[in-house]
Amino acid sequence: MPSGRIAALGATLDFHHGLLAATTIAVMASIATLAQQGPTFKTGTQVVSLFVTVADAQKRLVPDLTQEEFEVFDNEKPQAITYFDNSVHPITVVMMLDTSGSMTLTIDLLKQAAEQFLIRLLPDDKAKVGAFNDKIQVSARFTNNRDELISA
Fold first, then answer.
1. What is the tally of helices (H) and strands (E) in the chain?
2. Overall pTM surpassing 0.85 (yes/no)
């Protein structure tokens, strides 16, 4: 009997030694694979949107520029332009009119200028109109309805 136990114990020991050897080989293979892959670095980039308006020496707008006509620098280092769009984008604006006593003589001119601005908004542009004197009043919502904006 004692020899049977020893044999069983020996078989158990051989199994554990074999399991230990197999585990060691698997771990070593994983380490070797990681060593071949090299270290893992995480990096990130940040995209920064630049909205620009270009004017010439006479302060006239210069439309229809191409990506090749732009250079972008960050800390004096040239940066790649990853996306370029020269289309017109809608604006959202709040127009505040000074209707205080100091504007009494020019209030009609102010209203005409405001109307001219509003009628030049593009169809997708949105605005709200407000006024300030001793109180501030602003229309409740943005709209692209020019008639509603002019009458506000």
1. 3, 5
2. no
